[in-house]
Amino acid sequence: MDPKAYLEEKRKIVNQALEQYLPSPRKRPRRLHQAMRYSCFAGGKRLRPILAINSFELVGGKGREILPAACSLELIHTYSLIHDDLPCMDDDDLRRGKPTLHRAFDEGLALLAGDALHALAFELLASTGNLRVVQEVSQAIGSQGIIGGQVADLEAENIDVSPREVRYIHLHKTAALFRVSLRIGAILGGGSSEELIQLSRYGERLGLLFQIVDDILDVEGESGELGKPVGSDQRQGKATYPSVWGMERSKREAERLAGLAKKGVEKFGARAEFLYWLPDFILTRRG
Ligand code: GRG
Hints:
The chain has about 290 residues and is mainly α. It contains 15 helices and two strands. The protein has a single domain (about 5-285), classed as Orthogonal Bundle (Farnesyl Diphosphate Synthase). α1 (about 5-20) crosses α4 (about 65-85) and α2 (about 30-40) crosses α6. It is globular.
């Protein structure tokens, strides 16, 4: 298996499925549907749905049954980015290399497009007929998940916070969605409880690693490759790993987490080839 080719192949499958699930831009209300599509097809990496698909396949799941749930994660992720960019939150102008949704359309429509993506995500999750999956995603994005992390992130702006608090923010704001992506893949694929535990742990480590690398790239990355301005964390006084731990220690922590994530899936053997490859890919990512 070539993991890069796998990533590319699954990205295409996810894009085709999203194309099918998102309402036509010719259907009323047209501007809303255009706005939903504008953000969804702005060039995201599709990591979360691909993790769900991979976890589904790893535990023995077959066919396309995972696609509605996998795509629901991308809709939720996109909606979180739209809301995160709004003037009342981070007030950003650029995302995925394009003007943010509220800049390209308007603020009210951006808020509502996010809300509509949220609703569509739960319609897709409900179509699985699996209540546990609906419940797990609800918990992962609610007050003790992404939203809790985002509130802590906003509250931590321009004040001194501890490394422990930054870890809380990253685990909730970012790692919760990675973790649940692996979990719903494993649940829908019929994985055992032991497989579920291992994949959850992997998802949490990968998500934390992903956000630390995101923090590092905000300092050392290239705006062209990232599709968003660099240095915005510092300008906004955000609590990040480099701000509380310094750059060298943040990089060491990212490497440590990548090693732990890989170690945790070793026992799956060749079935986990993609998951074994991904932490190093994230460590060296530029965008
Ligand atoms: C409950 C979904 C939800 C949202 C409300 C606004 C908000 C609360 C949360 C924001 C959370 C947030 C923006 C976390 C950052 C996650 C992150 C590292 C995003 C970048 O992910 P990539 O690089 O993006 O995978 P692409 O563009 O490739 O999809």
